[in-house]
Amino acid sequence: MPEFKIQHITKYNYDSPVRDSANKIILFPIVDIYQDVIKHDLHITGNPQVDTYVDYYGNEVGSFTYTDPHTTLVINSKLSINTHPRPLPVDDVASVTQWDELFSLKYIVPYIDFLKQEYFEGLSELFPIVEDVRKINDTPYKTALRFCEYVYKNFEYIKGVTTVETTLDEIWNLKAGVCQDFAHILMVMLRSVSIPARYVSGYICPNRDGMRGTGATHAWAEAYLPGYGWLGIDPTNNCVANETHVRLAVGRNFSDCSPVKGVYKGSAKHTLEVSVSVGYEDHPLHEEKDLFTVSAPKTEETASRNSYERYMEIIQQQQQQQQQQRQQ
Fold this sequence. Notes:
Layout: E1 3-25, E2 35-44, E3 51-54, E4 60-66, E5 70-83, H1 95-103, H2 112-115, H3 123-133, H4 140-154, E6 156-157, H5 168-174, E7 176-177, H6 179-192, E8 197-204, E9 217-225, E10 229-234, E11 239-240, E12 245-251, H7 254-257, E13 260-265, E14 270-280, E15 286-294, H8 300-327
Pfam family, one: Bact_transglu_N
Protein name: Transglutaminase family protein
InterPro entries: Bac_transglu_N, Papain-like_cys_pep_sf, Transglutaminase-like
């Protein structure tokens, strides 16, 4: 039963004063038999009142408006939480029985949202891969694990090559990205064989294995399995999400679970800094910082071009290094 300390800081810097900053935050951990919140402190610039409600997917959501003119807005979430390991599926029911149960969920709320497939051009290429990866007698649980392994082995983990605006087609063409991209591809594969799949946002906490995404915001998928319920599967690390994964929210995709998003009146230029520190109760925090500079609203075209340019630069650098090594 590990206890984790998590600090999640979101900081907006504006190039001139803005006002009426209205924000929605999903920084309140899910509370159930697998997560106990010991303490949660939330500090926001200007100390605005935070109103909370529970959304359609069961997430606790906060909303606030900071009306005074300001050039900086900081949202500082400090969390102490206990996590508990969950048992793995026993998976002793005949596979045909389990698949029949999944097929019966097609028109049942709340599974409809998590079975709805987001179309992208790469589906025609992905479907044959799905059929090749899955085995005819596999249960849904085994199928989900095979899909997880496929994403882990066939997509390269590269920070900065994608953004939250990157489309499924871009991810599929790049065959690279970060945790949210891996989760989105896995969900497409699961939904294609009638396994309800939902997106999970949260944190992955330190362990001895040095998993990807440790000490930062993280994302993975959950698959609904007959006789078991929702099982977290982390394709970034090719593992079942368990006591080192702290859940903040679930939804259809990233948009439903974004930790912070909002609007304001004033200058369109700002810089966003996100810093996450994660550690055990008796160990120093490990910090990871991501910086984003936004000077104008991004269009799909510019987001795509920037992703490809960054990725191609990385590939070219690798090729140049290999060529230099051969010459030596």
